[in-house]
Please model this.
Amino acid sequence: MVLATNIAETSLTIEGIRLVVDTAQERVARFDPRTGLTRLVTQRVSQASMTQRAGRAGRLSPGICLHLLGKEQAERAAAQSEPEILHSDLSALLLELLQWGCHDPAALAWLDQPPAVNLAAAAPPAGGALGAGRRAAVGVWPQNGHPRQRAPAGGDAGRCADR
Model:
C-alpha cells in the first residue's frame, strides 16, 4: 500500500504496490514577493495528478487506487497544476540569467511568463551584490564568485549575503 504524495507522481515503480490511497492534496511551496519568503501551502491536486497517482497502483500487476474525495469534487478539480514558475522564488533563476549575460528576463520567450512582481522581488538591490563595480565585465563574475551565487539555499539565504 502507498499513501499517495507528490512522490507517487514520479515514474518510480516499486514492486508489490497494489493499493494506493490518494488524499487528493499536496504541499506546494509558494513564494510571497511582499515578504520575500517561501511557505508551504496544502492544496487540492489537479485531475492530472490524480490520474498519475492512480497509475502507481498495479504497475506490475492488477491494483486499486482509492481517491479520498467525491466524484463531484474530482470533476471540479483543475485539469492541470499551475506551472511552478508562477509561484516560485526566482532569485536563483535571475542569477543564472545574469551569468549567461541576460539582463532582461522579459526579453526571453517563456512558456509561462513569470509574474513581474516575482521578478522584481528577485532583483538584487541597487549597489548590492550585483551592483555597479561588482562585475569585471558583462557576464563575467569575480574569480571566486559572489557568496549569494555560491549559497546552496534559495533566495532567502542568498539575500542575507547582500547585507
Confidence is low (pLDDT under 50) at residues 131-144. Helices lie at 47-54, 71-76, 91-99, 116-122, 147-150, 155-162.
